[in-house]
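Continued from yesterday's entry.
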Amino acid sequence: MSNSEYGRRDFRRSKSHFTDRVTADGRDGWPVEPGRYRLVVSRACPWASRAVISRRLLGLEDALSLAIADPVQDDRSWRFTLDPDGRDPVLGIRFLSEAYDRREAGHPGGVSVPALVDVPSGKLVGNDYQQLTLDLATEWTALHREGAPELYPERLRDEIDTVMADVYEDVNNGVYRAGFATGQEEYESACTAVFRRLELLAARLERQRYLVGDTITEADVRLFTTLVRFDAVYHGHFKCNRWKLAENPVLWAYARDLFQTPGFGDTVDFDHIKRHYYQVHTGINPTRIVPLGPDLSGWLTPHHRQELGGRPFGDGTPPGPVPAAEKVPAAGRP
């Protein structure tokens, strides 16, 4: 879909076409190996941001290199214009589509992030955004840092899967169905579902610090990436405006708690987020004007969620400092 078509055509999230997985036993032909793969992301994209957060929480920075695309892509796909000479320094390509084309010429489904690319061949491995972070948590364990949290603990997987399915349908994907709706009825149905689910989640989180169990899990990562974008883009740009995140005491405190937890907020670039949504979706925002607000300082205010108990990293420890090359520029931080 071209940039000008967003908001002008019915929205359907396409399934990932390339579902090969990087696993400990290499059963798809792609074994876990330090330094072999490159994770291509946009800090603007909530689906890609899951992978950035998971990689950092698990301490995979040295094992899995990171390529950050320009938040304003053009119709040729995600661009590496943030890098010198407009090329990714490891893959040597200007557009992510080049890695896709090396894998399969004329492939369907478009070019999406997150994407795992095999560095030696320059070919795309996979773009299954739903499976990628689960594999980082379960297949890459030999390369996890000491003290890495269990983001997808086996004993809680059924509950995590149930919560994530509801969050995906009504919240992660729901804001897009509302924002890209081409009819009033379609919009109202999606927007109503977004806020119904948020209210149910708020009721759940009123009595417990995290979504499942007493530690951070994959479920929290997936909800956070939508909540952190809510007031900045979904409330206005996607018309999900029954109330702001900052107007819901429980969800606002929960989101701030995670934002202030190492591995979450230190990966968020509000500048990339706002420029992507407002400048790329020209079918919704033809002027491409990026709003000045909202005020971001509230993200750093006390949340008091620790009073509910819980241990963010369980028996583990927080990740260390952000690598210098991966620090979010000042323009993107509160």
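--- second protein ---
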Amino acid sequence: MSVRELVVLGTASQVPTRHRNHNGYLLRWDGEGLLFDPGEGTQRQMLRAGVAAHDLHRICVTHFHGDHSLGLAGVIQRINLDRVPHEITAHYPRSGQRFFDRLRYATAYRETVALTEAPVAADGVLATTSGYCLEARKLSHPVESYGYRLVEPDGRRMLPERLAAHGIKGPDVGRIQREGSLGGVTLDDVSEVRRGQRFAFVMDTRLCEGVHALAEGCDLLVIESTFLDEDVQLASDHGHLTAGQAGTVARDAGVRHLVLTHFSQRYSDPEEFERQARAAGFEGELTVARDLQRVPVPKRQ
């Protein structure tokens, strides 16, 4: 059975706390695992969450600040120690190549795994598989940063009442799906478009065009809300979002499930992030992320 869920490994911003590890997020998408922004301590958080190195297929780094990338060294070495049998691809800003190189070879170890480097230099499609298209969009932060968006191809939903009306049943259902028509009946006559699911990962950034493009129509949006609204100027100065801004983005983009994360250690009441996102008008499902939490991708509508 296919699984689509977000496994939250860490939710702190620059400074971890007693209850929040540095960033780390694993998206399980059917048979693949995409690891986003492995901060310091990610390898241990993976163990606590029941995530194995064998679960990883892609590593996506938004930018090279330590809370989003210092865990790369340990994760890459664990991948090699466990001799993961499949290729793993790493995406990260090309401008940070020197940082990736240092983290990849931070200490001595034996390389046993094919790790493909696929740096990001501009907006666009990074990879296309049978299950999704992975895209990147540039964000606005003091260092170059990219957000990631995963889009499932649209499919078809067969309509039983229309199949019955045309007398199509049994093996003929599969045949019309494969061939597009059967005895003068087209696939459009007996089915409708099933919209592919959409996921986006938006970390350190001010409001910008890339944020809105990534969030548009998402079933699950993971987005930073480092600051509360009363500190909006501080957020802008340091290249971050507030909870209210994140809620507004999600509202305008028609997001179904909003996940707020990357919280500053200055705040003690996590519920205030939800209150401010709601006050901005977001009415969909909302999660204020906790370490080791699992958040399912919403079921198809």
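The first strand starts at residue 4 and ends at 10. The mean pLDDT is 96. Will compare against the first tomorrow.
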